[in-house]
Amino acid sequence: MRRLAWLLTSTALTFAAPRISAQPKPEAAAPDQPKEDEEDKPEPEAKPPEESSSAAETKPKPAPEAKKDDAGSLPEGDDETPPELPLPPPRSDEQEPRPVFHANEPDKPRRLVLVGPDLGLTLRNADGSGASYSPGLSWGAHVRAELLPFLGFRAWFTQTQHSVDVSGADLGLPGHDVDQDPLTIAIIGARLEPTWTVTPRLRLWLGLGVGWNRVNAPIATITPEVVVAKRKGVFLEWSAALGGSYEVVKDWLAVSLMLSGGFTSNQSGNVFDSVQGIDQTGSKVTVGGYPEIESTASALLGVDVIL
Hints:
By secondary structure, the chain is mainly β. Helix content is 11%, strand content 46%. The protein has a domain of 150 residues: Porin (Beta Barrel). The chain is built from three helices and 15 strands.
């Protein structure tokens, strides 16, 4: 009986052992963590709110940092960043393409100096009847400067040869024939010319001036022979002029036309006075002077080189 009871007990324990071993063992409780670890743990940083796109665009740009000296510190007195200085205006020669200013406005008159030759015709009327002077070909040169946009100054030189129609009776030698080579008259003058600039290329002017004239008369051939010396004279010529010029090549070359007229004064010299001559017999005779010049008129065409 005891064996049977022991056998049953052993069998029962054999079937119960696997069930007992399959059950999980309870884990040992972890010791309590000290509160200091929880206090030392850093708190998460708060993220700043994201800025909207409009706020980012309107956000002012930071001011540029002030320059530092060699030691790396700001210079004395520069506690704040200095404001930016405005840039100077750009120069026209630094821009490509270059700007055009006042494109719709006409060009303003320029002050010019003009130098060039003159060619034309001059008339000189004799005072009284008898001898006369024929029109003569004139040539010369001039310089013209614009002192102001509305005022010019001209200096000129002109030389003219005039044939003389004279008889022996006109010189106080009746019965004699007189052959006189052309008289040469040279003038040096100056004139002020108020100017009207019609266009940048076209100018018109009026002028008042005075010129000093010198007359040279070659030795006349008188038949029957009367020997006379070479004769000379001088006089002043007061004149008024009307003229104009046009630039055929802008800022380089111009052509001009001038009409002038005037009267004379202060005539002197043996060309206008009586002189002594020697006839065939060796006797002295009186030879009369040429008539004085009463008035003048001329028309000159000029070519101007613009300086």
